[in-house]
Write a structure and sequence with these properties.
The protein is built from no helices and eleven strands. With about 120 residues, it is mainly beta. It starts with a strand and ends with a strand.
Length: about 120
Amino acid sequence: VQLQASGGGLVQAGGSLRVSCAASGRTFRYSAIGWFRQAPGKEREFVAGISWNGGSTYYADSVKGRFTISRDNAKNTVYLQMNSLKPEDTAVYYCASEPWGLGSPQANFASWGQGTQVTVSS
């Protein structure tokens, strides 16, 4: 599965943004997808994950209630809707695929796309 993240940008605190992860490859519909982020000087962290059929979703505590992950297998795309954004959400956001279809934070995310920058101003 090849992945490409897009949709990042600059937004004010409290605002919303939706980033997308477009995938190519036949196995996408059987793969879980995760969103991760990495801020300058910090380690990459798990943000959200979704199972192959969308039946299970997972979120980091820091984004629960504000971010929503979803997928459209007909469009080979996974979305991350980000609401009530905070300056601490500023990071490069990456999507990754996990072939076993689970999507949990402990899953083996093996294929990574290029990131998209999200900047939240205070």
